[in-house]
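Lab notebook, entry 182. We have the chain sequence and a SMILES string for coenzyme A, and the next step in the workflow is to get a structural model of the bound complex before anyone spends time on docking refinements. Request logged below.

Task: model protein plus coenzyme A, output structure tokens.
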Amino acid sequence: MNITFARLDPVGADHDALVDFMTRNEFPFHVRTRPRAADIEGLISKGAYRDEDNDSFWIDHGELGRIGFLRLEDLSDEDPLFDLRLDTPFRGRGLGLQILRAVADHVFRTMPSVNRFEGQTREDNIAMRKTFHRGGWVKEAHYREGWPVDGGTPLASVAYSILRRDWETGETTTFVWDDLVL
Ligand SMILES: CC(C)(COP(=O)(O)OP(=O)(O)OC[C@H]1O[C@@H](n2cnc3c(N)ncnc32)[C@H](O)[C@@H]1OP(=O)(O)O)[C@@H](O)C(=O)NCCC(=O)NCCS
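Result returned:
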């Protein structure tokens, strides 16, 4: 089913809906799992949802309507990252894969200078990690203790990416992880 992205205006028309979305959902694998309205207001005012590095979108599904939120990050670099958050009722239904494919389509079609597109998630976010693998993204790094956990021991941050040429061909360029013989 068709996935589209509606660019959102964090300081105008979409401000209240953005604060509502971020505060009524729980994000168990994000650094801030239960953001408060003040946290989101702070992020909005420092441009975290829209500035030269960031842009944010609602994710719309042809049948289900508005199902989540997407932020593109590091846009002034040529290898941007993203943050994807489904609204709770739409999690656990396999929609993440369709969305990930649509996000890569959006980035590679609308940003001709982007050659690689990256994503990171916490090591125990199995749903997101399976979604990356199924979408043909390649694990490129496992940053041990790289993900702070509120009141707990840091976990690993796992980094994936997709290359433009893999997006174009549908093939996955791999590499030999243990390439250096010692
Ligand atoms: C992460 C997210 C995008 C994944 O999309 P989704 O459509 O909800 O993914 P699903 O829950 O359908 O999971 C994908 C696969 O992982 C499997 N899976 C999920 N949790 C699992 C677990 N703990 N152990 C084993 N498999 C698991 C699912 O069973 C599914 O496999 P299947 O199709 O064979 O059944 C979505 O859940 C979400 O927005 N979560 C909250 C925000 C978030 O964590 N975003 C990631 C930031 S990068």
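Notes for the group: The domain at 3-169 is CATH 3.40.630.30 (Aminopeptidase). Worth checking against the assay data. The first strand starts at residue 3 and ends at 7.
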